[in-house]
Sequence to fold (243 residues):
Amino acid sequence: MIEEIAKVIQSSRSISVLTGAGISVNAGIPDFRGEKGIYTQGLYSESVFDIDYFLENPKLFYDFAREMYPVFEKAEPTKAHKFLAEIESKKPVCIVTQNIDFLHEKAGSKSVIHLHGSIEHSHCLKCGKHFSFEELKNLIITNDVPRCDRCGGLIKPDVVFFGEPVLDFDKAVHCVENSEVFLALGTSLEVYPANTLVQYASGKRILVNIRKTQMDYYFDFVIHEDLDEFFERLEDFMEVSYE
Ligand code: CNA
Fold:
């Protein structure tokens, strides 16, 4: 099957990709629902990422952020991230990511839609003042809940919490509808509306996820494997190296 996938990717004129937390697990960032995921291990509950809960009790989210920001900062792109960046230098590739890290950009990808926002920026909910990743990271080291130095308002990272609308969904649909191949990588396909993008794909659909998902049957090719191992193997069937 992998030989066929290599051919499909190689001969396509354009590719769209939906990535999920699984693509960053080998970079040291835990996912939600995987084997060692944040939910699976019971480390944090879904309410940490719920907007109503955050507005009432932001401390819980910031306890999580205090632990995770240094991990996000240190993380380096995986083989899978690098593969996608490299292939974009050869043909149009648009990435729709559910991830809030910036590993696609760190790997060199240019066309990235962050459906769920990113932790790169934050802003004050009262006066709108902008804070960089670095500024917020420093603020959360010394404060339980970081407050705006201009007006005292609550600062919120520009990530989409449960209960908030996703960003750029129209752009994501356009990108998926207009590509010849659709890849879904490292996602449980349980989060709406990102999981509905599968249905917009008109060309070949390829899923690589270490575990079975509830949407496997939508795909022409399904591989249950670690992503980096998959791309390592795929490379043997492609004409170029993606290191
Ligand atoms: P998810 O529901 O946690 O699913 C991740 C999937 O990846 C699971 O099915 C795993 O089995 C699979 N997986 C884990 N490791 C690998 C691997 N090495 N190779 C292949 N597959 C693997 O995450 P989704 O992205 O589907 O759900 C969307 C949520 C997760 C979004 O709201 C994200 O913001 C959120 N999230 C993002 C990050 C990040 O930015 N890196 C981290 C954790 C959660």
Observations:
- The chain has eight helices and nine strands.
- The chain has a mean pLDDT of 93.
- Residues 58-74 form the longest helix (17 residues).
- The domain at 32-74+118-159 is CATH 3.30.1600.10 (SIR2/SIRT2 'Small Domain').
